Each structure stands twice: as structure tokens, then as C-alpha cells.
Protein: Acetyltransferase At1g77540 isoform X2
Amino acid sequence: MVGTAEAAAPPAIVRNEKDGRFETEDKQAFLQYHLRDVTVLAVEGGQAKEKKKTAMDMVHTYVPRRKRGLGLAGHLCVAAFTHAQRNSMIVIPTCSYVSDTFLPRNPLWNSLVYKEERKSSGTL
Structure:
């Protein structure tokens, strides 16, 4: 049963800060991101105020054909969302895999998603 335990072990995902990617150790599967400053409305002392926040714009997820169906894209997303959460970032799910597949399957992460209504319209 050793083979079963090894197959069930999640893959090691590393953050490549220089290239703006979360990737598998062999660098073949990755989630590409860009950090952006965004303006959100925050309530402080009962008043809405504009506040700058860092957003992780998840722009592309790639898994090579021979490694598809193993859950790697999901593991990459979990690593990226966990990093965003731990660093008080919000997420912009530009990548269609993130927005159309990962988030519907993992709705607990929706609280980190940058929504249009969070944007400031310039008036309070």
C-alpha cells in the first residue's frame, strides 16, 4: 500500500516570487500572477473611506497535457489563495480556470475575490 500513500500525497507547490508564479517543483505546471494596487472602500469608525490594498491578479494556469487530471491546477490555486489570505491580499481571478472552475468548486475562497462593488466610484 506504499504506492497508494505516495499517489495520495499532494504535490509540492513553491512560490517563484521572481517570475510571479506558483509552480510545481519541476516547474512544468504553474499559476502566473501579477501584484496590483487597487482601491477598496473600507468602513472605519462608521464612515466609508478609500483604502489601497494589494491584489493578486491570477492571470494564467497551465498544466502540461500529460499531467492533467491529477488535480495540479487546484493545488496551485490553493497555494496561491492561501498565500493571498496570509498576506491580507485580495484576488482578481482573471484566469478562466480560477473563475469558472476552481471558485465554483471551492466557494469558501470567494471572500478573497475582488468584486466590482468594492471599487471606489470616486464619491462616497
